[in-house]
Please model this.
Amino acid sequence: MTSPLSRSLAALGVIALSAAGVVFTGIPAQALPASATIAAPDCTVPAAATVSITVSNAADDATDLTYKIVQDYGTVLFDNVTLAPGESDDYVIPVLEDASTPLQVIDVTGGVIAGAVQTANCTPNASPAAVATIGEASCLLPSGGIIPPSPGFLWTFDNSAGVGPADYEFVKNDTVVESGTLAAGETRSYAASLTPNESGTSAIRSVDAAGDPVVLASSTFDLDCEPGPAPTGAVSDASCEIPTGGILVPTIPGVEYTFDNSLGTSDAPYAFLDGDTVVESGTVVEGDTRVRSWSLTEDLETVVQVVTEDAAGQPVVLDAKTVTLDCLANTPTIVAPAADAVVTTPTTTISGTGDAGETITIVITPATDDATAAETAALDESDVSAAAVAVPATLTTTVQADGTFSLAVELADGAYSVSASATRAASASGVVPESTSPFSAPTDFAVAIAAPVTPPAGGGTTVTPVGSTVGGNGSLANTGVETATFAGLAAVLLLIGGAVTILFRRRTA
Model:
């Protein structure tokens, strides 16, 4: 049996909780031997709703229970009622329709045995102007209080435009979470909590003019708040054909940025950079992807990046490339003949480097306009016949896959200048038209083909011993080398010397 002192101490604890705003509904105070239940309103007679209350004293307690029943926290309905051990009392108390009625069963020693706030809603309240909305489920739903955001969604029942009271029910997975009646002009919002991976259905119900239930709003939810894969980013290489997704300008020369948050479970920040320029920045919602095309400047090297942020707000580079847009033809380089070279073979090979697939235009012009008559005559003393290619000449070839080109031509002895330009075809869509580069700087060279050495008639060489004479004329002894050989060598040296002299004069003019 519980002593009166223990009962009093327990009652003081219940009073403290009640003063703090805690309402006990149909639950007996743990340390009290008595119990009470306050039933929900009875609508058997809709015009006269009632609430049933039962008060009992424990049979194993030898102490009598003296209690009172209080309404609205101050109106005593029944006072100083005594129950012997094992006895109980039943009460039926009328309550007002659509009005909140606080009811309490209190031990006269100071303990609250039971308490509840009951609202009778026996006559349906329909408000045609009432509307309802259900917010989208979120992993970070603001609670509106000191509790931090948590998974859930928001019910809202709005009777602000109503002309009378309206009944409502907030329902989750066919279970009524909250119900009540809103007066005209009132709005009720309720944040429903969810587990991080919960799914199901929700609804807001009211009644029509006939009192039949109607669904004003419904939705499904499938929450996935477990951390998903981090977003990814990519930036393409520079290209002359970057899709824009547009109709008037379907492609542009530049790069394409991609920020992929399709597998993410939360929104993610991003930025697209071109050097120090922020092309675009913002937030991509979970499950979405952002793609952006961007124009670049021809032949300007730049660093393009896709950037996001970590949990601490620090930038994280997802992808970066150093790119240079190359959509227009570049001036080729002539490698051979080298500057001031003298070609002594019948065929002159003009070679160089360029961009694969481009057409190379080679222009060869004579370079003897500033040579003296003697120098020109010296070059013309060769016995080699003139080549088939007349200058000035314009020739074409194609750059091979390895980036080189080569063209063999036959040129007559003389001084020449050669330069080249490249032509690149238009891009696939034509957004970049055909382009031709400027000509390369002229490369000066000379052609001096060596004359062939012809052996003397008879095909033999007469050898006379040292010290002997030929014909008794006192000439030197024959050493075994024909004089014609020296004559041919002298002619070659004369040609080369003349070509070099002409080139030197042109370069110093």
Summary: The chain has four domains: 4-119, 131-222, 233-324, 328-509.
